[in-house]
Amino acid sequence: MAGLNRRSFLATAGGTCALALCPFTSLLTPASAQENLPEARVTPHPALHWEKQSGRRIKCTLCPRECLVDDRERGYCGVRENRGGDYFTLVWGNPCTLNIDPVEKKPLNHFLPGTKIFSLATVGCNVNCKFCQNWQISQVRPEQERSYDASPQKIIEMAKQSGSPAIASTYTEPVVFYEYVKDIGRIALQQGLKNVIISNGYIQEKPLLELLPYLSAVKIDLKAFTERFYKEIVGGELKPVLDTLERLVKAGMWTELVYLVIPTQNDDAAEIRSMCRWVGEKLGRDVPVHFTRFHPEYMLKTLPPTPVATLEQAREIALAEGLHYAYVGNVPGHPGEHTYCPSCQAVVIHRSGFRVELDGFAHGACKKCRQKIPGVWV
Ligand code: SF4
To answer: Do 125 and 239 lie in a common domain?
Structure first.
């Protein structure tokens, strides 16, 4: 890793903590912009979504974990602190990573294809996936990682300067920097930019619904389709994530799903079939599902990378279950990266890694048969 310090490596690694390291990610790091920002000091900012308990204890109601937090203590995610019976976030305005990525890297395949997206993260996460690729920033407290001072307005200015039409909160877990995401989204949408989150979906209903007016699209990592996996490998729960997905779709939010296929852990064909059937029935056939390739990482280094044949089989299952948009991810050059018209099967959007060609696509539809393709296109 000559020439790369730890921060540069994290920035170029990209993706989300749920995604395996993609080999084609050495992109456009705005290192100079990041380095020009002043270093942040850990400063409390009022938190949203918590309740007072007896004494000075509080209950955080942001995510389903519902941490009970005593005075001078923090919740599980390590970035929200009780000070004298009031609750604060310690990461508002303090990103630890800023980057400019192809939107396909998130991955979002039906959202402004071929564009760059200004991406940021603070430290912290409300789960601890054993396969996290960004554990160096997701599993630390604010004092353990250098962060920068960047107000929401500053983020908007930087995004505009970069020429990105959208901002993504990604890499760690946007739920735990909820207040920052919300304030960024409010200004971004007012000023003509879009705002997306790349999330595990582990959030309670009320904060989710309050955030939706400030979002343009959401990508959710559905990490498996069993509670066993969520309990043992993620440190979370499946049911609240499924609830989030249903709420997003019901609210009309553009939503894409990623299912990282991990050998021996969540790659059973019956489990994938059940998941696809659930997506078709509860979310609808137009919600894209990305089956992405796992690479050994963090605490799952002894497992092999996902065989491409397993990803292809998962995609076939999804199509057989009637889903319209099933993708193979983290396999650059694979034909499963393309968007196919569900009506005439023509290639509508051609992808090879992050190279995108829109020759078969016009005005949100298949050029050949005029079938409308759902997504956020302008
Ligand atoms: S957001 Fe953090 S503090 Fe709040 S319930 Fe979830 S893990 Fe606990």
So the answer is: yes
Domains of the chain: total: 2
Q: Which residues line ligand 1 (CB under 6 A)?
A: 60, 62-63, 65-67, 75-77, 80, 126, 176
| In a shared domain, residues 113 and 183 | yes
- My answer on whether 124 and 160 are in the same domain is yes
Atom of ligand 1 nearest to the CA of 176: 1
User: Whole-angstrom Cα distance, residue 282 to residue 249?
Assistant: 9
Kindly give the distance from the C-alpha atom of residue 309 to the centroid of ligand 1, in angstroms, as a whole number: 38
Q: How far is CA 289 from CA 9, 108, 229, 336, in A?
A: 28, 10, 19, 11
Q: Find how far residue 149's CA is from the centre of its chain.
A: 22
For the whole model, what pTM was predicted?
A: 0.92
The answer as to whether 137 is a domain residue is yes
Q: Rounded distance, CA 146 to CA 150, Å?
A: 13
Taking the centre of ligand 1 as the mean of its atom positions, its distance from the CA of residue 47, in whole angstroms, is 11
Q: In Å, how far are 105, 206, 260 from 62, measured between CA atoms?
A: 27, 8, 25
Taking only the tens place, the pLDDT of each residue in 47-63 is 999 999 999 999 999 99
Residue 81 CA, ligand 1 centroid: distance in Å: 10
What pLDDT is recorded for position 335? 98
CA atoms within 13 A on the CB side of 234: 28
Q: Could you tell me the CATH number of the domain that includes residue 169? A: 3.20.20.70
E strand segments, 109-242 = 116-121, 166-169, 194-199, 217-221
The residue whose CA is least distant from atom 6 of ligand 1 is 63
324 and 195 part of one domain: yes
Cβ contact 29:37 at 8 Å: no
C-beta of residue 219 within 8 angstroms of C-beta of residue 255: yes
Instruction: Name the pLDDT band for 36 (thresholds 50, 70, 90).
Output: confident
pLDDT digits (tens, 9 = 90+) for 145-197: 999 999 999 999 999 999 999 999 999 999 999 999 999 999 999 999 999 99
What range does the domain containing 23 cover? Answer: 6-27+95-337
Residue 38 included in any domain: no
